[in-house]
């Protein structure tokens, strides 16, 4: 059993979740933020059998695309009266960062449909 931890850009997550669902892979979505540009990203936790790892990696690779952004570099300190113009710099963003770790134990707890209605009455 493996746990795939995929950190993907927020712009790619809906497409990726649809593609994973079409392949019958379930994922838990955890919103996160960070990185150089402070862009929104999402961490997906995907519990799978060992033999499914190559297919999950392929689905992630096919649905998480790199793109470029232009950012203004930090302005250097200049003497009063000097003009400084910073040229925007093109930086790559997106894609995915994927970790695959061994899982010793995996349990799924689900409430049966009839039990849910009984719990509401409590």
What characteristics describe this protein?
alpha+beta, 6 strands, two-stranded antiparallel sheet, Alpha-Beta Plaits, 3 helices, 24% helix, 122 residues, elongated
Describe the structure.
The chain is of the alpha+beta class and 122 residues long. It has a single domain (2-73, 89-102), classed as Alpha-Beta Plaits (2-Layer Sandwich). The chain is 24% helix and 36% strand. The protein contains three helices and six strands. The protein has a four-stranded antiparallel beta sheet with strand order 2-3-1-6, with helices on one face. Strands 4-5 form a two-stranded antiparallel ribbon. Strand 2 (28-34) and strand 3 form a beta hairpin. The chain is elongated. The mean pLDDT is 83.
Question: Strand order, biggest sheet?
Answer: 2-3-1-6
Task: Summarize the biggest pleated sheet.
Answer: 4 strands, antiparallel
H/E topology pattern? EHEEHEEEH
User: Under the CATH scheme, which architecture would be assigned?
Assistant: 2-Layer Sandwich
- Overall structural class, as computed from helix and strand content, comes to alpha+beta
CATH class: Alpha Beta
Mean pLDDT rating? 83
What spatial form do the alpha-carbon principal axes imply? elongated
Distance between the termini: 37 Å
Classify the helix fraction into a percent range.
10-25%
Low-confidence stretches: none
The total of helices stands at 3
- CATH T-level topology: Alpha-Beta Plaits
Task: Provide the number of structural domains.
Answer: 1
């Amino acid at each position: 059993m493996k746990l795939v931890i995929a950190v993907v850009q927020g712009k790619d997550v809906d497409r990726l979740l649809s593609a994973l669902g079409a392949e019958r892979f379930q994922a838990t979505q955890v919103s996160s933020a960070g990185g150089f540009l402070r862009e929104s990203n999402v961490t997906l936790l995907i519990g799978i059998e060992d033999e499914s790892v190559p297919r999950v990696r392929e689905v992630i690779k096919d649905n998480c695309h790199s793109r470029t952004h232009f950012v203004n570099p930090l302005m250097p300190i200049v003497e009063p009266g000097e003009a400084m113009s910073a040229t925007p710099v093109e930086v790559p963003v997106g894609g995915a960062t994927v970790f695959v770790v061994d899982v010793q134990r995996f349990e799924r707890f689900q409430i049966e449909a009839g039990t849910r209605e009984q719990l509401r009455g409590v």
